[in-house]
Amino acid sequence: MEIWNNRTTGTDFVLLGLFHCILIPKLLFTFIFLVFLVALIVNIMMVILIWLNSHLHTPMYFLLSQLSLMDLLYISTFVPKIAIDFLSGRNNISYTNCGIQLFLFMTLVGAECLLLAVMAYDRYVAICHPLHYSILMCPTVCIFMVAGTWLGALINAFVHVVYVLNLPFCGSREIHHFFCEIPALLKLVCADTSLYENGLFISGVIFLLFPISAIVASYGQIFSTVLRLELNMGMRKALSTCSSHMIVVILFYGTAIIKYFLPKAYHTAEQDKVVSVFYTILTPMLNPLIYSLRNKEMSGALRKVLRRKITKLISIENRRRKN
């Protein structure tokens, strides 16, 4: 630890990271890097498939492409820094880079919280008001809602980052985390932060509890409608999509609630790291896998693209042999 401190300036922070108390850090690093590669591949694939396939140019898949984009940016905010620190042995992060990382994290996590609620509303309209779907979820409305999620998250992130980085930091600059996160930074502040923590709690209610309430209300109406209707093929397809969305919601919101709403006495810094790994690294990989594996249209679009590419390669090879 003294080596790290000697390499930092007066305004640098030291990220203790994930590996300083792990017996087999190389194995953990390899696992995280493989998860990162899978997340990059599947999220990029989802965005490209939805963009190329005209049959997927619907509000549901537009929202799904936004989720993949957020997950792609989300995991790219953390893993490259983790890899650089592990390979170089330098765990310091500058004041400016810490602020940038915190801003990206707050923006992306806030946007994803709101987007999942919008996706639930989309499924509610599709199942409960199918005749009005083209009006209630027209392209203009869809773009407006997505822009609202990004704008709301940007404003929230800007307010928190500006306030936190202007707090007086003193004593140790060691952040017991693998990235700059508000709860970990507040432990380094030598001032009373109770008032700000109340504000942070209110922000959590807006970006976690309100969207969860909207999702629960939407799915309550969906299940009520389904119980009154005969389960035809279209309804089964809609319910399959809903079940995928619910799995994503439980994974993302469940870990976030454990982290931000569970009293401090019930979790330690090490437990916080484990929870954070789940919703910052694992979830961005699992989200597209859950949707693609359980979605016949996505898997069908992927098969068409692969079939087209294979056919093209075969034709090129045949022409080469003839020549």
Automatic annotation (TrEMBL):
GO molecular-function term, one example from the UniProt record: G protein-coupled receptor activity
G-protein coupled receptors family 1 profile domain segment(s): 42-291
GO cellular component terms given for this protein: plasma membrane
Keywords: Cell membrane, G-protein coupled receptor, Membrane, Olfaction, Receptor, Sensory transduction, Transducer, Transmembrane, Transmembrane helix
Membrane topology term: Multi-pass membrane protein
Keyword DNA-binding annotated: no
Transmembrane segments: 27-52, 59-79, 99-121, 133-159, 201-226, 238-262, 274-293
Subcellular location: Cell membrane
Pfam families registered for this protein in UniProt: 7tm_4 (PF13853)
InterPro entries: GPCR_Rhodpsn, GPCR_Rhodpsn_7TM, Olfact_rcpt
Entry function: Putative odorant or sperm cell receptor.
Family to which the UniProt record says this protein belongs: Belongs to the G-protein coupled receptor 1 family.
UniProt-recorded name of the protein: Olfactory receptor
Organism: Bos indicus x Bos taurus
Taxonomic path: Eukaryota, Metazoa, Chordata, Craniata, Vertebrata
Gene expressing this chain: LOC113896297
